[in-house]
Amino acid sequence: MKTKKRITIYDIAEKLNITASSVSRALNNSNHVNEATKNLVLKTAAELNYKRNVLASNLRMGKTKTIGVVVPRINQNFFSNVIAGIEDATYQKGYNLIICQSNESRDKEIKCINTLMNQHVDCIVISVSVESDDHTHLKNVIDQGVQLIQFDRVAEELETLKVINDNEQASMEAVTHLIEQGYKRIALLEGPQNLNIFRQRKIGYLNALEKFNLPVINELVIENAWTKELGAAATRKLLSLPEPPDAIFASTSDFSALGVLDVAHAMHIKVPSELGILGYANEPFTEITTPSITTIDQFSVNMGKTIANLYFEEMENHEVAVTPKVISIKPQLIIRASTRKKK
Amino acid sequence: MKTKKRITIYDIAEKLNITASSVSRALNNSNHVNEATKNLVLKTAAELNYKRNVLASNLRMGKTKTIGVVVPRINQNFFSNVIAGIEDATYQKGYNLIICQSNESRDKEIKCINTLMNQHVDCIVISVSVESDDHTHLKNVIDQGVQLIQFDRVAEELETLKVINDNEQASMEAVTHLIEQGYKRIALLEGPQNLNIFRQRKIGYLNALEKFNLPVINELVIENAWTKELGAAATRKLLSLPEPPDAIFASTSDFSALGVLDVAHAMHIKVPSELGILGYANEPFTEITTPSITTIDQFSVNMGKTIANLYFEEMENHEVAVTPKVISIKPQLIIRASTRKKK
DNA sequence: TTTGGAATGGCAATCGATTGCCTGAATTTA
DNA sequence: TAAATTCAGGCAATCGATTGCCATTCCAAA
Prior knowledge:
homodimer, alpha/beta, 434 Repressor (Amino-terminal Domain), Rossmann fold, 3 domains
């Protein structure tokens, strides 16, 4: 059995004794066709089970109703949630999603962008990889007239639409919470400082200390501790100091906080009484560790939806070239057992 | 500053005083052009920063080097891992991925399939939603000559390429492990039986019992307990039986197992000594609960890669229409504290 | 009655890349 | 030397949908 030939507008045209132009106009609800003709075309199209050839349409129109998404890793809870949110919102508008992962590599990120550009996506949504300091490839996107939306990890100097968390504020609140619980020597596990999010979280930390007149102790600030293993290593180092910290803010991720917790367990240090632990991202597991981990929720699915809606708004106001919009979502501190020192 | 016009093969042709045909052939490495011309074209293309217009090419060729993926939920660990695996493997071959989520709804699944078909994807990879009993929409895909690959949750009666886990075997091993640990009254939390995976896991459970001459106790088999909440509810019910189980196999998911654990904690029942708990899927959190949960690893990322490679193989052997290949991946039992009864 | 416009439809070009077929030239074989 | 190949390039159609421009009809306003 041969694959049936697809129905085209020409088939409809032939059947109705009109031209493809009219069919096209009818299908696109143009007011350049007679109402009667329009209905006839619509009816016939339905009968013949006509499906517009998207490829042809894309070529002609130069747009694809497709959004490209580039994230460091698809299978990281935060990102997959954002993607789920984007999918949810874009699907309803008949948009498609092409997904790429940069694997935290600059090279791959560039290749992803190129692929997406070649696919003529209408918009690129990206959270930059840790490696990418130079943002020429993103500038190119803008120069080629493709809408660029950055989220979470953003290149701040680029004037694009951005959807971010208020990391500084969240971090500040988190540390404030620790101080209010009575912790006095609060260590910070910080992430790669070339990423805005980690810089901001550090600022929040510093601001909180300053607000409460606590000194910044350099040896309590550990660089690049953004995996479980690195978090664990940092913790071992911190806890073997002459004056160890009484709380650790793993500003990089909950995984890092998990590393902290593991080491604390191994060293028989009581959490939260002897050591407070605070993570970032509200990974599902933070709720079920013993003790459960205080963390910060980023409303990731919502973030995805916000991104999608931002794009659609921008499409509509298309003429009004306002200054690039930045939407900041306020994350929420989720207080759990790991920092509940006061009774 | 206007957006520069894109370079086309006609621009190259004009510059070199040849026709677009030759340029096209040169770019496609056809042996229908002179070697010298070919090099000249390649050189010029590079100079002018020519990029093939994929849309035009797609239209002409009728294929898109794009694979559509339909999963119930993108932000579910197993699926996002599979997707990550697929992305990894397809990316290298220059293929793109369009991702849809069915949200476990049959309607949405059908719509996803339609969208993907309209986008002329070369292949559709799907793990069916729990709702979809009728598979007409999948048959259509095949009839239209689009490669269909099912994974994990598959419609067994459809003769398509399949990449699955050996759920029966895994389940059997799991229950065997429980029995060997000395558990005697093993309860089963089963998933919707219209999904093959849950049917198979149940069979594995039954086989293991039979092998060891243990009776099947109907009141220990609980239907549809495939979320944390349902798992918890089932557990409450089970533990309040006159003769409660001494082990619970949450064959549906680790989340369900987590519900079991929660209830056990709440009821001060000791795990694993008084109650053994076994989950499914090796979710990251199973490692860090107290006690850690014994579970089954599905090699999800690998599964994704396998899917991609299966497609590419099939492409190459394209002529040889063998009986549809089924690749079964043997999952691995990960034994952890929650079932370690024997010392 | 004439003119102006609105409504409706057709024509043909266009979006770029691809490819079957044809032609003329160069090379090989008989 | 003549016939047969091979090589390399050009021509034009094709993949379908879209749209600017032109043509016709019909009705209303002058």
